[in-house]
Amino acid sequence: MAKKLFIKTYGCQMNVYDSARMADVLAPLGYGETDGPEDADMVILNTCHIREKAAEKVFSELGRLKAIKRRRHECGETMILAVAGCVAQAEGEEILRRAPFVDIVLGPQTYHRLPEMVARAARAGGAVLDTEFPLEAKFDFLPAPRVEGAAAFLSVQEGCDKFCSFCVVPYTRGAEYSRPAAAVLAEARALAAEGVVELTLLGQNVNAYHGEGADGEWTLARLIRELAEIDGIGRIRYTTSHPTDLDDELIAVHAEIDKVMPYLHLPVQSGADRILSAMNRRHDRAFYLRLVDKLKAARPDLALSSDFIVGFPGESDADFADTLDLARRVGFVQTYSFKYSPRPGTPAAAHETQVPEAVKDERLAALQALLNENTAAFNHASVGRVMAVLFDRPGRHPGQLVGRSPYMQPVHVEGVGHLINRVLPVRITRVHPNSLAAEPVGNERECA
Ligand code: 5AD
Ligand code: SF4
Questions:
Q1: Interval between CA 357 and ligand 2 midpoint (Å)
Q2: Which pTM was predicted?
Q3: CA distance 92 to 395
Q4: pLDDT digits (tens, 9 = 90+) for 154-181
Q5: Which ligand is nearest to the CA of 283?
Q6: How far is the CA of 367 from the centre of ligand 1 (A)?
Q7: Is 262 helix (H, G, I), strand (E, B) or coil?
Q8: Which domains does the chain have, with CATH numbers?
Q9: pLDDT at 51
Q10: Which residues contact ligand 1 via a Cβ below 6 A?
Q11: In the list 45, 281, 300, 378, which could disulfide-bond 333, CB 3.0-4.6 Å?
Q12: If you measure from the C-alpha of residue 224 to the centroid of ligand 2, how many angstroms do you get, rounded to a whole number?
């Protein structure tokens, strides 16, 4: 009989990708996904450690799952409980100590071994811990990804060597690793053959990609050029980029290849040189602003999104004013902004001049008010524009489809329900709080 698997995913797109791949790995064992933990034979929490009391959230979720597991036991059923992802990597043994009913603790680099771990957990009746950084790359052991819809993630790079002083990623995900180009191209071709139109290349530091290619190391720019040759692939995105790895070759790709979407996530974190330096970001404000100019010169319709941290240790009112100023100048169309959260083991956490919580709250509110204005202005300026939208989901009403504009804005349109998973030109007609409304243009001519 089919077994039921429930995966709860926290955090970034890499975790979303990893969760899908864990489901792929477990499918041959008879596991199919279900919507909740109550009827699940196996539950995986795929955790994130980047901000806030991540570990505490996981332990309280585990408390709830413990009760469900006990109930299932009383009914003669079992539930395998696994904790994966970056909290698992960081906390390891501590999870098994505090939550001994957990069966498996695995890090982000070992999930290709899940079938073996499940068998070991069943056999031993005890817990399995696997948070190594193994020599073998998990990608070499994963089955072909299952495709759902016309937009897919493709992980090309993992880990980070940048060591920003606030960030846990270099510790939880490990050193930078780039998949060989041939493996990426093969996966992309397989996805295209299954109907994928849009690829989002993933990596913690994706533009540091330097995978082995047919003729030496390939850059991300080279990889994108080759991916753009694949029939059926109509749109390419990549995330997340570090400013110092965004070289002229990659900027040229934005100018030359229409399939590369005119939208780039380029975290800046702060607009103040003093703070950027304390963050070990390896670039200053002028460097970032120059990059933005170069990108816009290469692709005038390019829009940027970004990440910000407020209240980094030592951040003064003047530093924060620089951040507001930079945000105003660039006019980001989408942003993610956070209060600084000390991460155990990172250099900034030990800093003596932590910013009081109330100041962080104030600064976050001020920054978000400005950033939201920029996003709203961009959305309103979209009205009347014709955009190519990949419609990949049915909407709430019959015949309605929802998709993404080149700028990742959610767009919905009526009366073209049969054209799901296609890229259509539509005219934006209205701005809703969380989406844009559009109407088809011409007679449903497709873009790609
Ligand atoms: N505190 C607050 N925000 C953080 N980020 C990473 N680490 C921290 C931290 N310790 C944010 C950064 C990063 C995004 C993914 O999360 O802005 O770009
Ligand atoms: Fe973290 Fe900095 Fe690496 Fe991004 S570049 S993953 S913020 S260390």
A1: 23
A2: 0.94
A3: 41
A4: 999 999 999 999 999 999 999 999 999 9
A5: 2
A6: 15
A7: coil
A8: 3-130 (3.40.50.12160), 144-261 (3.30.750.210), 267-381 (3.30.750.200), 386-446 (2.40.50.140)
A9: 84
A10: 50-51, 166-167, 267, 269, 307, 309, 338, 340-341, 343
A11: 378
A12: 22
